[in-house]
Amino acid sequence: MNILVLGSGGREHAISWKISQSDRCDKLYIAPGNPGTASLGENVALGVNDFEGIANLVREKNIDIVVVGPEDPLVNGIHDYLVDDAKLDVKVIGPRKGGAQLEGSKDFSKQFMQRHNIPTAAYATFTKDQIEEGEKFLESMNAPYVLKADGLAAGKGVLILDNLDEAKAELRAMLADAKFGDASSRVVIEEFLSGIEFSVFALTDGKNYVILPEAKDYKRIGEGDTGLNTGGMGAISPVPFVDDAMMKKVVDQIVEPTINGLNSESLPYVGFVFFGLINVNGNPFVIEYNARMGDPETEVVMPRLKSDFVDLLEAAGNGTLDQQTIEFDERAATTVMVVSGGYPGSYPKGKSISGLENVENCTVFHAGTKMEGDQLVTSGGRVMAFTAYGTDKKEALERSYEGIKRVCFEGITFRSDIGFDL
Fold this sequence. Notes:
This is Phosphoribosylamine--glycine ligase. With 422 residues, the protein is α+β, with helices and mostly antiparallel strands.
């Protein structure tokens, strides 16, 4: 089969890496891809929201499966466009626009969870003509206060504040001053849940599903989970506290009701569901849904997937996932992200990267790199993810960090405590 992966980050590099291992993939295209994906297939200079360009590529290259990496094109309706508008005979792994609302609108997802009795934090949603009601709602709650922009805000739309006055000021900034643009035209105020977070991933054909390896990622820039939120500084899999009993609760109380709920509401959903969960005294609650795989979790989930990934993708597209079994690699996998100095604030680009050829016992997934002539340089905040296997988390992390030691660019930054809380 000919397969197209949409996206350019570490997640898409890891997905492409896994697809390229399958004998069933004849030709792999990545749009736009990055210098890492260039060694696995053919990079095509197309933006993920260039729907017409993507449709033309699918037609021209006889693409059988399109795997959508990032959330933007899903929420914008890439699935609907390729299948309904362009009338292409192609399997799209990524939900239609209706289903993508699970990620595209926090308010939609909270209402969906309420309708289907899925455990989540208590909440209320407010618009800019309801600021006073929002302030009263904040007064009725205990600190810390959780404010979420309703729409997509590139991972920056969630604020957790300890001070009531500050929470009120941020509510006003989000609603009245459009702090996050259209994304915060509505704001969800949520009860704070205290516990430890983890992520579960399902691939579904709309009725059947398989559960992929679970993971735990680390979002904050600073050691000990301090400082500003980032797109993710590292991840580990498996997660020690996610035992069979916890996973049974996740499946029974969250995964099954979600897949059944989408089906009952006539929201056709083919693709990945990312369940951002929190373990509160041994019970799982949903913090958020994503309509695609997480990043950097994908960089540890794909390495732990033993099954042929293309078989699973094809079955999802054909509605036959109930006929598939899924196998995991028993080893631990860890990934540590190296980032540009200054990230997640402003940071320089174009810094020369050296030493990759010296990395051993480690797979490097590119996230924010590009070629300038023959030189690999930084082009984003999160630059590369160093993924390694080990008999346990400790051994895998040692290998990830050993790999990082062999690579250099000006301002290189990383957290040396990934997995510290486990």
